[in-house]
């Protein structure tokens, strides 16, 4: 990282260098070592560390070295002068570890504090703002900022400067931590040249990054091998994560113990853990979801809930603990289920899996739960061909290249990745039928009853 920091621009004694979140000073010591070994002058170095014990230890380590100052402070809120060089390993702290006040304050100040942000995104943004024109910066962070939706604002900021290099490191780089670390080298000048991306398999490629959408398709650059016919998004009316009730312990019941008076409100449902054996999904489903919505997907008024209302009332305390009830009635699902689209022939897959596999719900009767993704082709006539393609080695390779990874190298299938998946020409031809099918969806045929019966 130090070699990259000083590539093409050796440090001078008048330059200054920052390590934000310096810990006990490992990187500053690394810079000193590099300068000694290569016979270069030391720049004026500053380490900022918020944890007092680590700041003390760093100070003790560099006592007697005039060129290094350790500040006990907060990189995200203190006022900070501009720097020629910034090198760091920022903290990886998810939003869940922050207090409500911290989250609110960060959201006011940082463009990157969006959605379920992580502190390293904010460190990136602050460091970019502290970099002098022409200044150089090298950060080691998780690779996720390259593709997660939350990091869109950071990608937008980064694409305005010259990203010289991105190196994807082996997952074992930090003992015991599965972080898929990435080293990013940035120069603070308008982006003019392509970025060199070093891949984990030792190959490298040249990429131009633009905008806030995931950069992974650009990095993988594998789309060219597929037919340019279109993507899965073009032939589907919905590609989405399954229904989040926010209280499956209340809304999901075993079908064989369901009280008969609740049957009108129950729909067969399936979770990722039930998708195990390749092949057909069992027609008899073990679980049902109690659904307080009409078939059109609108929430039933409380007075029309009948037996379901009585059942849910007994769990009212549990249901109002859900965050969604701040803006929705106490018995609503966490997310409104788009039932007209869900209750159609569709393809299902698990959200996290070692090897992606796709199943057909031919009758369109199953409500996928949050651990299941569902793909609804506009033309149900192509469902077998589409399933076969999704289960093909070619599609498997594409998913392995493009999906985010969870622990143990498992793949995380997300809707934005599934939507961007290239499809062969013969499937792409069904695209023409999609718009007609969308029109039908706006006027769904209502069954005799607005509610359902267990099938
Ligand atoms: C991943 S560690 C890196 C430490 C050191 N750079 C290294 O690689 O050994 C991140 C450090 O940032 C510090 N830190 C976290 N939030 C901070 C903040 N807002 N300002 C300054 N330091 C912070 C943590 O205490 C921790 O020491």
How would you characterize this protein structure?
- The protein has 455 residues and is an alpha/beta fold.
- It folds into two domains: 2-224, Vaccinia Virus protein VP39 (Rossmann fold, 3-Layer(aba) Sandwich), CATH 3.40.50; 232-441, Adenine-n6-DNA-methyltransferase TaqI, Chain A, domain 2.
- The protein has helices at residues 2-5, 26-38, 52-61, 100-109, 119-130, 152-158, 216-220, 232-235, 248-251, 306-313, 316-320, 339-342, 383-390, 393-402, 415-419, 425-428, 432-441, and strands at 16-20, 44-49, 68-72, 83-88, 131-142, 161-168, 181-190, 195-198, 204-207, 236-241, 252-254, 266-270, 287-290, 346-350, 352-353, 359-361, 367-368, 372-377, 404-405, 411-412.
- The chain has a nine-stranded mixed β-sheet.
- Strand 2, helix 3 (52-61) and strand 3 form a beta-alpha-beta unit.
- The chain is elongated, with a radius of gyration of 27 Å.
- The protein starts with a helix and ends in a 14-residue tail after the last helix.
- The structure holds S-adenosylmethionine.
- Residues 21-23, 26-27, 48-51, 54, 74-76, 88-89, 91 line the site of S-adenosylmethionine.
């Amino acid at each position: 990282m130090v070699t990259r920091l000083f590539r093409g621009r050796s440090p001078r004694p008048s330059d200054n260098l920052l390590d934000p979140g310096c810990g006990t000073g490992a990187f500053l010591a690394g810079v000193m070592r590099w300068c000694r070994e290569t016979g270069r002058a030391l720049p004026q170095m500053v380490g900022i560390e918020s944890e007092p014990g680590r700041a003390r230890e760093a100070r003790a380590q560099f006592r007697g070295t005039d060129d290094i100052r350790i500040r006990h402070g907060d990189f995200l809120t203190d006022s900070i002068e501009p720097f020629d060089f910034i090198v760091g390993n920022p903290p990886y702290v998810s939003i869940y570890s922050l207090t409500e006040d911290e989250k609110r304050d960060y959201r006011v100040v940082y463009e990157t504090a969006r959605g379920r942000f992580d502190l390293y995104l904010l460190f990136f943004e602050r460091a970019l703002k502290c970099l002098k024109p022409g200044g150089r910066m090298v950060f080691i962070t998780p690779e996720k900022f390259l593709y997660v939706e939350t990091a869109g604002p950071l990608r937008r900021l980064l694409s305005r400067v010259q990203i010289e290099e991105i190196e994807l490191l082996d997952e074992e780089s930090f003992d015991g931590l599965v972080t898929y670390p990435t080293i990013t080298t940035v120069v603070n000048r308008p982006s003019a040249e392509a970025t060199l991306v070093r891949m984990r398999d030792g190959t490298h490629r040249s990429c131009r990054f633009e905008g806030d959408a995931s950069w992974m398709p650009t990095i993988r650059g594998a789309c060219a091998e597929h037919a340019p016919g279109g993507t899965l998004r073009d032939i589907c009316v919905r590609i989405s994560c399954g229904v989040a009730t926010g209280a499956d312990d209340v809304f999901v019941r075993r079908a064989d113990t369901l009280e008969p008076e609740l049957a009108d409100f129950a729909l067969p449902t399936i979770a990722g853990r039930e998708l195990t054996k390749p092949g057909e999904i069992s027609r008899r489903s073990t679980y049902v979801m109690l659904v307080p919505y009409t078939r059109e997907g609108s929430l039933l008024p409380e007075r029309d809930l009948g037996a379901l209302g009585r059942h849910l009332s007994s769990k009212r305390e549990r249901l109002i603990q859900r965050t969604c009830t701040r803006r929705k009635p106490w018995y609503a699902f966490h997310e409104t289920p788009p039932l007209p689209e869900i209750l159609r022939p569709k393809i299902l897959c698990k959200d996290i899996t070692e090897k992606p596999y796709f199943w057909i719900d031919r009758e369109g009767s199953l409500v996928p739960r949050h651990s299941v993704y569902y793909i609804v082709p506009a033309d149900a006539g192509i469902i077998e061909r589409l399933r076969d393609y999704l289960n093909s080695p070619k599609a498997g390779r594409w998913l392995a290249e493009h999906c985010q990874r969870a622990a143990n190298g498992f793949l995380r299938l997300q809707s934005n990745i599934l939507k961007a998946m290239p499809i062969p020409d013969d499937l792409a031809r069904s695209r023409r039928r999609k718009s007609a099918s969308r029109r039908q969806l706006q006027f769904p045929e209502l069954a005799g009853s607005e509610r359902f019966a267990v099938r």
